[in-house]
Structure formats: structure tokens, C-alpha cells
Write a structure and sequence with these properties.
Layout: H1 6-20, E1 23-26, E2 32-34, E3 40-44, E4 50-52, E5 57-58, E6 60-62, E7 68-70, E8 75-76, E9 79-80, E10 86-88, E11 93-94, E12 98-99, E13 105-107, E14 112-113, E15 117-118, E16 124-126, E17 130-131, E18 135-137, E19 142-144, E20 149-150, E21 154-156, E22 172-175, E23 180-181, E24 185-187, E25 192-196, E26 200-201, E27 204-205, E28 209-212
Parallel strand pairs: 1-3, 2-4, 3-6, 4-7, 5-8, 6-9, 7-10, 8-11, 9-12, 10-13, 11-14, 12-15, 13-16, 14-17, 15-18, 16-19, 17-20, 18-21, 19-22, 20-23, 21-24, 22-25, 23-26, 24-27, 25-28
């Protein structure tokens, strides 16, 4: 067998190494931008947003103060922030939980979340998305939009501090056309629950269902 020269061996090693490498990115102050189509390990920062390009993969995405945007066709594990919104594009695959404390969450068409979706303050919206676990919030509106599927129910928790249960504003929970929620829909505070006539849901505890048959739920 013909032997390979040392320069060629080094070239092959470097090429293969870069193709297989999975780099972590960790910062304290500063944004993180993961390039489209590349593979990454953990993406972590404290003060800064995180953007994941289309088709990229990441083991996990985490910040404290900053928004997280995951573009079309990307894959990741868990996605979490404390103060910031989370937006997932088309056909995003997330193997873990999607969670924020203070911020909106939006997941676009064709995406799949193997964990749950959770926040405290801020709206949660799904469009043609599959969530294997539950959706949980305290003060946020929830829209399980057209064609979406939630496998673990919905839970709106009782506020533990900072808000009166008699406050005039009630969270709006909308189960849209052809959407489904398996498991219990449990509400520990007063909400307005709209369910499209083509949707399917599990048992409801703590709220009365308001049916609708228009493209969008009533505004009042």
C-alpha cells in the first residue's frame, strides 16, 4: 500500500477536525451569532442576545439578559433566557424545553419541541407546531394556533406575588382551528378560554370554554 506524505496527512487531519469539531461559545457581556449551517456545542452568554443561523445546530442556547432568535431549519437542545423574547423560525427542532421568565415566545410553522414551553410574563404563540410536553405560564396569553399540537396540556399558575387575582385583565387562552391539546387544561387564576369548534382538547379545570368558528378568536 502506498503511504501518504506527512503534508497530506496533516491536511486531512485538519480538514476532518474542522468538520467534526463542535465548539462551545461562552461570554459574560456580548451577543452570540452562530453561523448558518454550522454545528455548535453550548451557546451561553449573560448580557447579550443569541442568534442561530438557518440550518445550524446547537447543543443548548442560554442567556440571562437578551433575546434568542433561532432561524429556519436549525436544531437545538434547550433554549432559555430570563429577560428576553424567544423566536423560533420555520421547521426548527428543539429537543429540550423552551423557557423565559419575562418575554414573549413565538414558534413558527413546521417546528417541533420535544420539551415544554414555559414563561411567567409574556405571550406564547404557536403556528402549526408540535409540542410534546406542556405549556405553562402565569400572566401570559397563550395561542395554540392553527394546526398546532400540544401533548402535555396547558397550565396557568396562580400568581405568587406582585399581582392581584382580582386584577381586571385576564389572560387570553386561544385554541385555534384544527389545533389539539392532549391532557388537562388547568387554570389556577381567572382566564378567558376560546376554543375553535374544529379543535380538540382534554378536560378543562378552572375555566369555561367559549367556542368560536371564525378564523380568529373574538377580541373581547
Amino acid at each position: 500500500m502506498k503511504s501518504l506524505s506527512l503534508p497530506l496527512l496533516l491536511t486531512l487531519t485538519l480538514c476532518c477536525g474542522s468538520a467534526w469539531a463542535v465548539d462551545d461559545i461562552s461570554k459574560v457581556n456580548g451577543a452570540i451569532s452562530a453561523e448558518a449551517g454550522r454545528a455548535y456545542g453550548d451557546l451561553e452568554t449573560v448580557n447579550g442576545g443569541i442568534t442561530v443561523g438557518a440550518g445550524a445546530t446547537a447543543r443548548s442556547i442560554q442567556t440571562v439578559n437578551g433575546a434568542i432568535t433561532v432561524h429556519d431549519g436549525a436544531s437545538t437542545g434547550s433554549v432559555s433566557t430570563v429577560n428576553g423574547k424567544i423566536a423560533l423560525g420555520l421547521r426548527v427542532m428543539a429537543e429540550g424545553k423552551i423557557e423565559t421568565v419575562n418575554g414573549h415566545i413565538f414558534v413558527d410553522r413546521g417546528s417541533q419541541i420535544d420539551g415544554g414551553v414555559e414563561n411567567v410574563n409574556g405571550s406564547i404563540g404557536l403556528v402549526e407546531t408540535r409540542v410534546s410536553n406542556s405549556i405553562e405560564t402565569v400572566n401570559g396569553d397563550i395561542t395554540v394556533g392553527v394546526g398546532s399540537q400540544v401533548g402535555g396540556g396547558i397550565h396557568v399558575e396562580r400568581p405568587s406575588f406582585g399581582i392581584s387575582l382580582s386584577a381586571p385583565r385576564k389572560p387570553r387562552i386561544i385554541i385555534g382551528p384544527n389545533a389539539s391539546v392532549a391532557g388537562e387544561l388547568r387554570f389556577e387564576r381567572e382566564v378567558v378560554l376560546y376554543v375553535h369548534r374544529t379543535a380538540s382538547i382534554g378536560p378543562v379545570v378552572g375555566a369555561e370554554v367559549v367556542p368560536f368558528d371564525t378564523d380568529t378568536a373574538p377580541l373581547n
